[in-house]
Backbone:
DNA sequence: AACTGGCACTCGTATGCGCCGAGTGCCAAA
DNA sequence: TTTGGCACTCGGCGCATACGAGTGCCAGTT
């Protein structure tokens, strides 16, 4: 087990390195943090920390930098979450309050997160899985062409075009619309399949084909749209990444474009509570030199989606975590209101 | 006026520089292109071209690189548009044919363009301005809460939440829905304002407030949504930009996040025909070292939106223009079909 | 008049060398 | 266990040198 002071040394190293972006040596440490011991002592502690794998030297006779394991310890044991100040909180709320629709809420959230953390922000659109159906609308576009519009309680709208096997009258359509809504409105997505199972039974034989086509399209939409969408912002902040640009930045940009990858990563977010994945803890190779701070958000108690930021492992964890948590909280509020 | 051979020399310089990314000298030129003259002659021509401002030397005693003016001449007079090969065209069509809805069409287009050109692709969502209304739907969510859903002929769906000044019955809602659609369905957006002007007249006095609220929200949607949306992809290709990364890449990333800026740039696209804006021809400062190739696309004759790519001024113009044109053409087809 | 070969010159890049200093590990003393 | 001292390492920086690609100019040729 590491002594109390050694933990303090580790904390000091992380803080200094995050600030200066340069390997930190024993002398500088004792000067900037009053640890009450001499550089020589700190050197011994550093040697011990290095043995344990918490810090490393880029080259012999250079200062130390934290390893992924070091950051992990720092995040778990040594650092708290730095809360936002009152003015910051107010600014967040004001900014988000100006949103006019769901797209706008997400867009503003991304901007805000990117600005607050000066890193890359990722926000997942509120998921359909946990949401409920607010309304299903059917529109007749042509005799044998119907548009299905699905509206969720999070304000999301999905539409699908349906080619019917047979012409479908306005009255049948109205009938189907009414029955459909009476069954599924207000219900959870996951419950919908059972609820509509025998819906076709009440219809004229010649309409049954169309009805079941509509139903299966509805079910498809529910499933397919769980390929959820993301919004990303603040990529310009990647330029603050490090000195060795091209090699570091390229795989990150590539990973960011692979929404599947990001969704998977966000999906691993523990719920409730914030998840911090550091460096090689990220399965995706391109993100091995980044850390991801993510958290679920949602109206009411349940998380309907995730949001987070992607930054260099050398990031200000307490500050970033504070910003992520605060933003998630306020977005949840906004969603609950609308 | 420049002699024929000098133009050939300029063309050769552009081609070589685009290929090698290095300043090109007289000797290398004569070796790689059989101009039929000696390096010394080429040197004279180069001196002349430099006097005219078409090429420049990064440093004394280095080779020449084209200036923005040189690229301009190249694009206008010396290079054609390199058409896609048949297999490429087939691949484009196949890839786009797989799209399931409008979002997917746009997403695939972006991916495709980025891949084909190995640059950053920008695709504007089909604009509302030129489109027509397919259907307007009104849903009652609560006694005094209505959701407005607008469906366009390009498959785009916009929704708005409306708080009514007074409760609004289902029958009134159905009435309004019917009247609204009979007036605006199939009409152009620009015509809608006149068409609905006196629509409130036919309603009960207590409903008029709500009706006019709904109408004004509809009009707002038509206007507001002309703040059109964009999709961007291939940002990882920015890493192939040049050697002097951070300084070049940062402002570009910033500009790409400012959708307003991009929309303005795309808006300047001459219609019909492809627009190429080279280096300083771009008003936005961050894009002074990039070129933008853009073109309108749309179903039928009219362009409903623009798409294009952003790359270094040192880009393969004929190839890029070919790809942009081909993709625009096929996206137009896809839109026309759906 | 246009083209060509030759030549002196420029200058950016690569290479090698020496110095400096931050930082280390180790050891003996407190 | 802590501390001061000391020899050692090694990356970064400055400088001088050599190299070579490329140029401009000029005189000679076609």
Residues:
């Amino acid at each position: 087990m590491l002594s109390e002071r050694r933990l303090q040394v580790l904390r000091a190293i992380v803080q200094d390195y995050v600030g200066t972006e340069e390997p930190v040596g024993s002398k500088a440490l004792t000067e900037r943090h009053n640890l009450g011991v001499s550089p020589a002592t700190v050197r011994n502690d550093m040697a011990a920390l290095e043995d344990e794998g918490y810090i490393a030297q880029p080259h012999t006779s250079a200062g130390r930098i934290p390893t992924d394991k070091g950051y992990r310890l720092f995040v778990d044991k040594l650092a708290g979450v730095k809360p936002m100040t009152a003015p910051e909180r107010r600014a967040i709320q004001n900014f988000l309050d100006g949103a006019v629709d769901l797209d706008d809420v997400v867009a503003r959230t991304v901007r805000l997160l990117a600005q607050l953390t000066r890193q890359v922000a990722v926000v997942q659109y509120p998921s359909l899985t946990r949401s409920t159906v607010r309304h299903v609308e059917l529109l007749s576009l042509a005799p044998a062409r119907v548009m299905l519009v699905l509206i969720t309680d999070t304000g999301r709208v999905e539409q699908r075009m349906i080619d019917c096997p047979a012409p479908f009258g306005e009255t049948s359509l109205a009938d189907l619309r009414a029955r459909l809504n009476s069954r599924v409105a207000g219900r959870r997505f996951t419950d919908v399949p059972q609820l509509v199972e025998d819906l076709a039974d009440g219809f004229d034989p010649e309409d049954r084909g169309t009805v079941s086509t509509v139903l299966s399209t509805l079910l498809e939409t529910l499933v397919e749209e769980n390929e959820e969408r993301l919004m990303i912002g603040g990529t310009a902040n990647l330029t603050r990444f490090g000195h060795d640009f091209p090699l570091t930045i390229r795989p990150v940009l590539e990973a960011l474009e692979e929404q599947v990858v990001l969704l998977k990563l966000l999906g691993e977010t523990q719920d409730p509570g914030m998840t911090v994945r550091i460096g090689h803890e990220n399965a995706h190779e391109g993100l091995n030199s980044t850390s991801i701070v993510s958290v679920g958000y949602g109206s009411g108690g349940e998380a309907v989606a995730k949001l987070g930021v992607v930054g260099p492992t050398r990031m200000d964890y307490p500050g970033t975590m504070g910003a992520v948590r605060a933003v998630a909280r306020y977005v949840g509020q906004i969603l609950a209101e609308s």
Summary: Chain B touches chain A at residues 100-101, 103, 134-135, 137, 139, 141, 147, 149, 151, 155, 157, 159-161, 224, 233-236, 238-239, 245-246, 249-250, 253-254, 256-257, 338 (CB under 8 Å). The beta strands of chain B are 55-56, 65-66, 120-124, 133-142, 145-152, 157-163, 230-233, 275-278, 290-297, 305-312. The longest strand of chain B covers residues 133-142.
